[in-house]
Amino acid sequence: ARVMVAMGGAEDALYLLDRLLAAAEAQGRVRSVIEALTVRASALHSQGYTGPAWQSLERALVLAAPERFVRTFADEGDPIADLLQAIYSDPQPRHRAVTHIPQDYLSTLLSALGRIPGPAAGSGQYSRTSQPLPEPLTPREMAVLRLMSAGMSNGQIAEELVIGVGTVKTHALGIYGKLDARNRTQAVARAREMRLI
Question: Do 86 and 75 meet the contact criterion of CB atoms below 8 Å apart?
Fold first, then answer.
């Protein structure tokens, strides 16, 4: 289905996804339901059907939030990032489902997709620009930093972002260097001073 969408065959992909979704729901395979809904949202978004795409993604998020799935959404890239950003920043949610999706979970997903909080946002909008650092933090470093600030251990961060503990440590060293910090406590404190998190 992803290949079909990438090759411009979103309508065929939607037909296939609807069949896969029905089968997954009938068999109670929640992870497969979440993935099918997410790819479906991406396909609908590519066709310009923003409302249905939004609804499909919301259904996936409501199912995924209790287990805090990240990779399922992060793998879909910009189309899902755009929809998540719209859901995150909507001041008056259009659908009741949004109220059942924790904001911190949406924030984690946006960080994993490389959407960094921008100082001019004001309303929760996410942007990829503007960090007051000579060498800006990468999107992945920002995701690690946000989870550090939430008090997560390296193992918990690795599990949340679906990466290895060694990779988390490498990102942490990059964060310390760019923030001129000796440890995570200093890094989080400096990041807060700079309004990065």
Answer: no
Nearest to 122 by CA among 148, 91, 101, 98: 91
d(CA 50, CA 42): 10
Report pLDDT digits (tens) over 23-67: 999 999 999 999 999 999 989 988 888 888 888 998 999 899 888
User: Contact at 8 Å (CB) between 137 and 173?
Assistant: no
Radius of gyration of the chain (CA): 18
Q: Is the pTM of this model over 0.70?
A: no
For 54-78, give the DSSP string: HHHHHHHHHHHGGGT--HHHHTT-H
Counting DSSP H helices and E strands in the chain, the numbers are 11, 2
